[in-house]
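U., I forgot to send this yesterday:
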Amino acid sequence: MIGKRWGVRCLPVVAVLALAGCGSSPATQISPGATTSAHSNRDLCTRMIDFFHNTLGVPEVQVAELSQGTIDASIDTTGSCYLNLQRRAPYVAWLTVRNMRKPDHTDPIGARYQRLDGFGEDVWRTPDDSYLTRVGTWEGMLAIDDKIAATSSVPLRMTDQKVQDTIQFLIATTREMQ
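Result:
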C-alpha cells in the first residue's frame, strides 16, 4: 500500500523532470549578436591615445584616472576610455564601444544627431563633436570636448579633414574591438 501511494505521488514529479530535460534551457541559448570582445579597455585606450597624439595632434592627452581603475578589464560587451589633458582635469574626450546584441540601423532618437553618408557604415554626428557609428551588432561613440581640447598646448581645431579622420578612427576601432 505504501509503495503504490509513493509511486502515485512521485509520478508527476518524474514526468515534469523528464519534460524539463528534453528541451534546451533558454539560459544556454546564445543569441546571434551575443559575441564578446577579447580586447581590454587598455587596447581601446592605446588606440585612442595614439589617435589623439598622431592624428589629431594633441600631445599631452593622457588616460584619465576613471579609466585607470578599469584599464585591464576585458571589454566583453562594453568598454570605455576617458582622456584628459592633465591629472584630475575634466575629460577632453571619451570613447565607448558596446554590443547591442542585434543590428540596429535606425537613427538615434533626438534631433541632435545628423546622419552622415559615404562611410560604408551608419554614422551620426552632433553639433558638439560627438560621433556615433554602428558596425554589425556593435555601437561606438566618441565625444570630444572642443572647449577643453582648445586649451591644449597645440589647440585642437576640428577641420573637415580631422572630422573625416575621427569618423574613420571610430569605425575602425568599433570593428577591431568586436
